[in-house]
Structures are given as C-alpha cells and as structure tokens.
Amino acid sequence: MGILGGTFDPVHLGHLRSARELMAALSLDEVRFIPCGIPPHRELPVAPASIRQAMVEAAIAPCSRFRLDTRELETGSPSYTVTTLSSLRNEFPLIPLCLFLGMDAFESLPGWHRWQEVIDLAHIVVAHRPGWSVPQEGALSELLADKLTDRAGKLHEEPAGCLFIHGVTQLEISSTAIRTLIASGEDPQFLVSRAVQTIIENSGCYRS
Ligand code: ATP
Q: Which helix (H) or strand (E) covers residue 73, if one does?
C-alpha cells in the first residue's frame, strides 16, 4: 500500500501524478491519500478540513486505486506521521506500507517527531528531483547508507525498512503557489483537476 500524506490545501496535479507514477513503479494495488488534521510543523491550513477532504475525494475519483483515508482528520491532535503509520500498521500487520515523500519532505525528515521510527513502520519512497544528490553527511546520509535499495521488488519482500528513490515527472506545482495565485484573482486551471477547481470556486476558500 502506498501512503501519501499532506495538507492538500489544495491537492494538485503534482501530488496526483507523482502518486500515480510511484504506484506503477512499485506495482502497488492501492495508494491512500491521508489529509492531515493539525499539521505539527507549520501554520494551520487555509481551507477547512471538510473542504480539503472534499477536494481529495474529487481529485482521486478518476483513479480506482486511489483511496481517501480520513484517520488524521478524525483526531483532535497534531498529525504525526509516526502515529498515523502505527495506526495503519495495527490495522495491516503484515503488508508492505510505502510512505511516499517528495524530496522536500524527505529532507525535512530528521526534524519530525520520532522520525527514526518511521522506517521501522514503513518503507520510505522518495520522489526525486533531477540534479538532487545524495547527502554526504548528517542523519539522512546514515539512513541512506543503511537502508537504500535500488530494487523495487525488495519492497514486496519486507513490510517496512527500505528506502527507495525514484524519479517522477517534475511538475513544479505547490499548494502555496496555487493559493497565492487564486488570492490575486487568477485561475488555477491545469494546476488542479477540473473537479477540484469547481470546489475551490464554489467554496471561495482561497479568495483574499
Ligand atoms: P504547500 O505549498 O502548502 O507546502 P505542497 O504543494 O508542498 O503544499 P503538501 O500537501 O504539503 O503540498 O505535500 C504533501 C506531499 O506531496 C509531500 O510529501 C510533498 O513533498 C509532496 N509534493 C508536493 N508537491 C509536489 C509536486 N509538485 N510533485 C511531487 N510531490 C509533491
């Protein structure tokens, strides 16, 4: 199972396309999109949880293997990845869990709550950026030295514990840029799906 957590404020084509490509590269049956409730490391989302959930639902509808998972929205506490993965691991004791991270998220990993436990609960799958090079020092370089594999099949042999880095089509889209664009009166067409654009327009959630 692939897992893509995020604020999804809003979910955009960069999220969807990279999840699609990682799912195919790893031959996964399912990817769960897990919108976070209260992000612990950043300011509160702009759109309410109900709208972010509706946007994810609408965005993933065309892909039958994409699923919405609302567990982080249902707790009233900050959404720590380690807590979410523990909860998934309790539900699915044996299957491989593959946590998808963009390179920015991977680079921030050593700042996460109980980050060293993450790889014991899931494989970490990083969508990489051209020109990125493996860190030569620091906590991530140790993780890479210990856990990196270049064999996708290995992620099916163990439930967790591997790090896999895979190139995806680069779509330089960010939710922040989309919110800024909308607040300045511009149109997010072709950055988000048509269904997400409709929800944004009807709710007015990013209007200045
Ligand atoms: P913001 O601009 O508000 O920080 P974001 O666009 O980075 O938002 P998030 O919801 O914070 O979106 O990201 C969730 C996950 O998706 C993270 O792992 C992030 O690295 C990844 N991600 C975000 N944008 C892209 C993109 N354009 N291509 C691939 N992965 C992405």
A: helix 71-74
